[in-house]
Amino acid sequence: MSQTLRPALLAGVTRSVLGDAAFLFCDDAEDAGKLSGKLAEATIAFDAPSSGRLSLRLPWPLAIEAAANLLGCERDDPDADENALPAAAELLNMISGPALEAWFGASAKWSLGVPSTRAYEGSLPTQAPTGQLVGFVVDGARIELEVIETGAADDPRTHR
Amino acid sequence: MSYSILVVDDSPLIRKMMKRTLGLSTLDLGTVHEATNGREALAVLEKEWIDVVLADIHMPVMTGSELIELMSRDELLGKIPVVVISAERSEPAIERLKQLGICAHLMKPFTPEQVLETINHVLEQAAVRSHA
Questions:
Q1: Among residues A97, B42, B46, B80, which is most buried (max CB within 10 A)?
Q2: pTM as predicted
Q3: Mutating which of A18, A74, A79, A83 best tests the B interface, going by the most B Cβ atoms within 10 A?
Q4: What is the count of structural domains for chain B?
């Protein structure tokens, strides 16, 4: 079991899920650019040998594209816009499973919460003060995944 | 014979994906019912004939695990095949679901082909059981 989540591992899982599930093909973000404009953010809590949360942030047009690709409809279909936030949540959900499996091992007891989402305008710093952050570029737009540990490692047998 | 399927997921996106996937299949499809959590699923199961339940695990109000546990305690509902479709990969959690009697566990992300293959397999198993 790995108890250290390496950024490379997180990046690999994220790249794989975004490409396979939503046809969002990621390049590494070479610079520390900023997310800006209207953003979609999904956050999910995890409870494991170490608890915390993961957040996925992506520009709104990419969230619409992800929804369209997941639903198999065109980007200008009203369904795609309506499902932009659910798409962000679902992609994060899909990332979380393999990420936690790689982090804690399949034999560890861990569970995921229900994803929450929000849409907002503005820019965010790319350097999180407490979490691990990996950034990607998809079609010139930046996507970020952040992991924040909020709890110290404890006995996993106490978890559901 | 057409098959009625209940999709239980709090994500409207996943429910739509499932309906679309099922609609594209060669499966003799009856009605695809939807529920956003375990409690809503139980209400549908009380009113409708359902051949297969496709259920997420992490849902508000009533989780998929709670739904499966309640179904397993009921003589009639306990016979309905349940396929869990979730991001859950923890072996202890999956083992717990198997103990509760789920027929299959499909991990997200999944392909439409995987969903259909799993449903066909579960329906075949159910047919064999009903003739035993």
A1: A97
A2: 0.82
A3: A83
A4: 1
Q: Measure CA B12 to chain center.
A: 16
Distance CA A102, CA A147 (A): 14
ipTM of the complex: 0.76
Give me the amino acid identity at A79.
D
* A81 close to B (CB below 8 A): no
In chain B, the residue whose alpha carbon lies closest to the alpha carbon of A107 is B91
Max Cα distance, chain B (Å): 38
A73 in Cβ contact with A79 (< 8 Å): yes
Flag if B58 and A111 touch (Cβ within 8 Å). yes
Reported as a single tens digit per residue, the pLDDT across B71-108 is 999 999 999 999 999 887 888 888 888 888 898 998 88
What range defines the domain where residue B89 resides? 3-131
CATH code of the domain covering residue B52: 3.40.50.2300
For A7-124+132-158, the fitting CATH number among 3.40.50.2300, 3.20.10.10, 3.40.1550.10, 3.40.50.720 is 3.40.1550.10
**DSSP letter string, chain A:** ---S--HHHHHHHHHHHHHHHH----EE--S---B-SEEEEEEEEEESSS-EEEEEEEEHHHHHHHHHHHHT--TTSHHHHHTHHHHHHHHHHHHHHHHHHHHH-TTS--EE---EEEEEES-B-SS-SSSEEEEEEETTEEEEEEEEE-S----GGG--
